[in-house]
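User: tokens in, sequence out, please.
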């Protein structure tokens, strides 16, 4: 099939303003968007800048806007998006070059919500055991690959409002509902403020954008409930 990729370019070393450039080439319907981007980079314009690593939907490095929807280029087939494809960097993230965005502030949010297991109790003789039911409580959010597709789809995040974003809440959820964890009071400082979960307006963009199918909006709702639950 003949395809046309229109890519939002930003090459600050040669031009101040962003612009769109179209590349036309032949591809198979079963090729992925990433195959097309690689073709452009390797055969048409080596200056095209993008991130990709695993190429199998695991590392989360190639999240981008594809025909207006966030997704992973390595998991999106051309037959599903058509012959005319518009590709842009994730919204709400500072663009460094072409499709490469600055993810440092994004990963800083994970530190804020302490997205790791907190348990200062005595060391057990063996590993901290957990039942399958207890593990299932956070099973959905444990699938997160930290690609940023959910955060980049969130209108509350776009204006640079300071909202920590859906991905950080998903990461917090992963540990808040882990039976071995005791860190929820520490996490509340980042989650319960104006820039925490309450900035979420339940738009559901995040759930639609997640390439691994996490029920992101539901997880955010569960975190909101946990922060307000008085046990009665
Ligand atoms: S390149 Fe790793 S998720 Fe796509």
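Assistant: Sequence out:
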């Amino acid at each position: 099939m003949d395809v046309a990729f229109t890519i939002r370019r930003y090459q600050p070393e040669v031009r101040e303003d962003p612009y769109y450039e179209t590349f036309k080439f032949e591809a198979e319907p079963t090729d992925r968007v990433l195959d097309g981007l690689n073709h452009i980079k390797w055969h048409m314009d080596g200056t095209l800048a993008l991130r990709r690593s695993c190429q199998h939907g695991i590392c989360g490095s190639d999240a981008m806007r594809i025909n207006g929807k966030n997704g992973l280029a390595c998991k999106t087939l051309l037959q599903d998006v058509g012959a005319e494809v518009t590709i842009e960097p994730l919204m709400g993230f500072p663009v460094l070059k072409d499709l490469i965005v600055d993810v440092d502030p994004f990963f800083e949010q994970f530190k804020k919500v302490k997205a790791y297991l907190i348990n200062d109790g005595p060391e057990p003789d063996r590993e901290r055991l957990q039942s399958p039911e207890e593990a299932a409580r956070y099973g959905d959010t444990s699938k997160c690959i930290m690609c940023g597709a959910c955060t980049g789809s969130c209108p509350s995040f776009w204006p640079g409002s300071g909202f920590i974003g859906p991905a950080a809440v998903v990461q917090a959820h992963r540990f808040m509902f882990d039976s071995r964890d005791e860190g929820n009071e520490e996490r509340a400082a980042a989650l319960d403020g104006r820039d925490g979960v309450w900035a979420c307006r339940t738009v559901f963009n995040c759930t639609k954008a997640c390439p691994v199918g996490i029920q992101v909006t539901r997880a955010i709702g569960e975190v909101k409930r946990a922060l307000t639950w008085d046990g009665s």
